[in-house]
Amino acid sequence: METETAAALKLVRDRLLRARKVVAFSGAGISEESGIPTFRGSGGLWNSHPIEEVATPQAFQRNPKLVWDFYLERRRDALRAKPNPAHVAIAGWQERFSFCGVVTQNVDGLHRAAGSRNIQELHGNLWQSRCTQCERVSEDRALEARDLAPCTDCGGLMRPHIVWFGESLDPEVLATSARWMRDADMVFVIGTSGVVEPAASLVRDAKRCAVFTVELNLSKTALTPVVDVSLFGKCGVIFSRADGSGLLEQAPNRRRTKLSRWLRD
Ligand code: OAD
Fold it and tell me: Each residue of 191-236: pLDDT tens digit?
């Protein structure tokens, strides 16, 4: 595991120059510089809103209004937020690599807003609701409680389309994420504490398949002993360093290379 900054950055750059398929595996920390609170640590959402009150199926059964209020607040946070240089750089990687996938634990939609297209949302999406009776999923932009608007098809109670504690992830989303990460040349593990399963195990699986893994975080995490390289600092800053030592400039623009070769020939 390489953590010394200059050597680690050089290693990551060298690998990026050779990579064809990259995956960004992100957590709440990637959106922190966009103004969205993370979950753990001081100031984390789970300190002020205990998980068992707002993020379990039992909590919703007990008090759907309280749970909806929590997620409507998350929607308002997300609406105020803009993608930061980390989201934007990752979206730009689509032009630089033959494949760039995003596997995110986040529900805020900022990867999509930045322009990423290949996205797997492991924990759902803030802007979708699901009927508790007929399971219909619909896009929903509401920002205020509308007396728990019922399903327009069956009249059932709508819930946030979020994977809560004690629930299973969508098997297709999980399988696609695992395949992308196993098949990648490099996986970037960005802004996650790595303590929530099965998400964290996707990184372990990729590592077991000899994928080169790079962590970007403020400090050590549960995945630090697993990854090949850890770069410590704010991920938006690491991606956007204007002195050219950021990660953004390090990959050759394959499309442009191809085009200029074609123009020359
Ligand atoms: P956490 O809140 O557990 O961890 C956020 C991580 O981001 C921490 O390791 C911070 O050190 C790091 N961090 C904060 N700001 C950063 C920055 N600017 N640059 C780089 N790193 C930064 O959030 P997650 O790991 O995403 O699930 O949590 C995983 C899941 O647990 C979430 O998807 C959520 C939560 O319960 C559900 O709600 C289902």
Answer: 999 999 999 999 999 999 999 999 999 999 999 999 999 999 999 9
Q: How far is the CA of 26 from the centre of ligand 1 (A)?
A: 8
Whole-angstrom distance, CA of residue 208 vs CA of residue 229: 15
The CATH number of residue 174's host domain is 3.40.50.1220
pLDDT band of residue 261 (cuts 50, 70, 90) is very low
Which residue segment(s) compose the domain that 147 sits in?
Answer: 41-80+127-162
Choose one of 162, 181, 209: the last residue of a domain: 162
Task: Identify the pLDDT of residue 264.
Answer: 40
CATH number at residue 142: 3.30.1600.10
Q: Rounded mean pLDDT of 124-141? A: 95
56 lines ligand 1 (CB under 6 A): no
Rounded to whole angstroms, the Cα distance separating 82 from 93 reads 19
**Residue 121 beta carbon below 6 angstroms from any ligand 1 atom:** no
Residues annotated as catalytic are 123
Do 157 and 235 lie in a common domain? Answer: no
Among candidate residues 85, 91, 174, the one with its CA nearest the CA of residue 102: 91
Q: Is 218 in the pocket of ligand 1 (CB under 6 A)?
A: yes
Phi, psi of 47 (to 5 degrees): -75, -45
**How many domains does the chain contain in total?**
2
Q: What is the pTM of this model?
A: 0.92
Nearest CA owner, ligand 1 atom 15: 29
Nearest ligand 1 atom, CA 38? 2
